[in-house]
Amino acid sequence: MRRNLKFEAIRTSLAILIALAIALILIFSVSSQPLEALKEFLYGPIDSVRHFGNVIELAIPLTFTGLAISIMFKAKQFNLGAEGGFFIGAIIAMIVAIQVTLPAGIHPTVAILLGGVAGAIVLCIPAILKVRWGATELVSSLMLNYIAFFIGMYLLNYHFRDPNAGAMYSYKFPKAANLMRLIPKTRVHFGLIIVIVMIILCYYFLYQTKWGYAIRVTGENKRFAEYSGINTAKIIILAQVIGGFIAGMGGATEVLGMYKRFSWQASPGYGWDGVIVAILARNNPALVPIGALFLAYLRVGADQMARSTDVQSEVVAIIQGVIIVLIVADSFLSKYKHKLIYKEAKQNMSIKGAK
Question: Total domain count for the chain?
Answer without folding.
Answer: 1
